[in-house]
Amino acid sequence: MSINQLIFRNLRKNLKNYYLYVFALIFSAALYFAFVTLQYDPSMDATKGSIKGGAAIKAASVLLVAIVSIFLLYANNIFIKRRSKEIGLFQLIGMTKNRIFRILTVENFILYFGSLLLGIFVGFSVSKLIIMILFKTLGVDGVASLHFSYEALIQTLIVFFVIYLFIMLMNYLFIKRQSILSLFRVTSVTEGKVKKVSFLEMIIGMIGIALIVLGYYVSSILFSGKSTLVELFAAMIITLGSVIIGTYLFYKGSVRFIFNIIRKRKNGYLNINEVLSLSSIMFRMKSNAILLTIITTVSALAIGLLSLSYISYYSAEKSAEEYVAADFSITDIQDANKFKEALTANNILYTDKTIDVIQVNVNVENIVDINTDGLFFDPRAMKMAVISEQAVADIQLSADETLFTDSEGVMQKVISMKDSGAIELKGQHEVIAQQYKGVNMTSLISGYFTNGGLPLAIVDETVFERLKKDINPTIQKDSTQYIGIDIKDKSHVKEANELYQELGFTSNLSYDSQLEMSNYQKQNMGLIMFIVGFLGLTFLITSGCILYFKQMDESEDEKSNYTILRKLGFTQGDLLKGIQMKQLFNFGIPLIVGLCHSYFAVQSGWFFFGTELWTPMIIVMLLYTGLYSIFGILSVFYYKKVIKEAL
Fold it and tell me: Are 385 and 359 a contacting pair, CB within 8 Å?
């Protein structure tokens, strides 16, 4: 057989066995080329001025290179070890190591760059679709076109050529370091198969579970309102460290420990399903602890970041409504009249409301239920917006009563207040004692007056007049009037917002538009969601492939066991049930642990990003679970093929 025939025979065999690796390589190249194309696509000019789309995508492409590089190097390491016997046979028939390396180099070159070129073609084909998805997510009115970028092509070829050089270096070092005897032993080395669970492993297992539970508990009380900023930072470090270390120890000992308890409860009598699932996982998961820890941690990070960005995107409209009570908020009477005239001229019906708002230092020390050390404000003189009860319907207060409106989501967590208590309203010269009467949930004015989401104080009319006469000019806003304008027919809000823009009101920081705020938040968080989503999808594909490749290795190692079991009378269906349970554990355990990590991470600080937790988070988790499960199903099909060949 000539060298060329040998190369093409190996290519056919490798393509048949490692089709998923080829798919992942094509997918990675396509996604990277599409991302780089976005940087040079003229249609991306539509995002300029509102977001730095090109810069964000460029940063994402760097992360994408890191993910793809690690995956390709790791996958190549698995494949070169699987071919160790073949390499040993080449040496036995007289081939030198350099000649074998040249054969592998040519094989990899054809397979690698063939997949790369196909990936670039796929990336070019879907680049327009990706741009359309981006524009749709951002709400940008841009025209997407199919644009081939030579700059993107050159950049993609350079990046993947460098990765190819590292792969060849890895292959060269592997061949040079291995003797003929060691090459025949590479795939027969056990993965830490220990017959008995030691006392130390039991301790490690219990410590792993305890550390994860500790991290979950600390994350759940991060913003309970009792911690200083220093304590809060320390708690975050403890949470991160305990969860990551606990995850490693969980795979190192906890899984073996738990499954060993199950096995002991059965007195060692396991049926065929339990032998193929529990026993195999007990012996193999320990040796893969580092790999599984990395996959679980990065999966949790991807799910968490995507959930948080989607929470912000999903909550954009509601957040805008909480920040601005009306469709439009204007603080200057003349500008408000201009806007009203423009609305009238365009036959847009509206209602308006004017509220006098003053800023007052309030002593809330007696009602703030938090540790006041290290706070960003002085609870004895918290600057708050104050309005009269006459500006609010259905509220009547006595001269010594004050009612607060509810603070925004973040402030609710950071500043926890009691149900009642004594407070003081401080004018420039006079201090007025009041009784705090709790919280009214209604949003009444704009966030411009409430100093970043702090509560709004509602007082009796006589008290309000006293405060107006004794205001502290150094803490007042540029305007003391909130003018809220609501559009009666909500279908005309977009048209009204265009008039708002034409009058140049968007540049005034004291003016607000619900639609403008919602669109701005959707654009910023939509871009983040788009990037995190594609990076998360890349990691999901690559990590799923890695787990799949590990299962391919295990199936080949256990093929002789399946032959024995078939000869003992077990049917293909009997073995397949055990394999299905095994894959449920192999893919399910990292997935469930990753989902739990992401849930506790998201729930500890989701309120910084939006107003809705469950719907966005559940959607993200279900999508991730569905895509991840595909690799478990593929591994079952591969095992089915191995079982068929076992007899």
Answer: yes
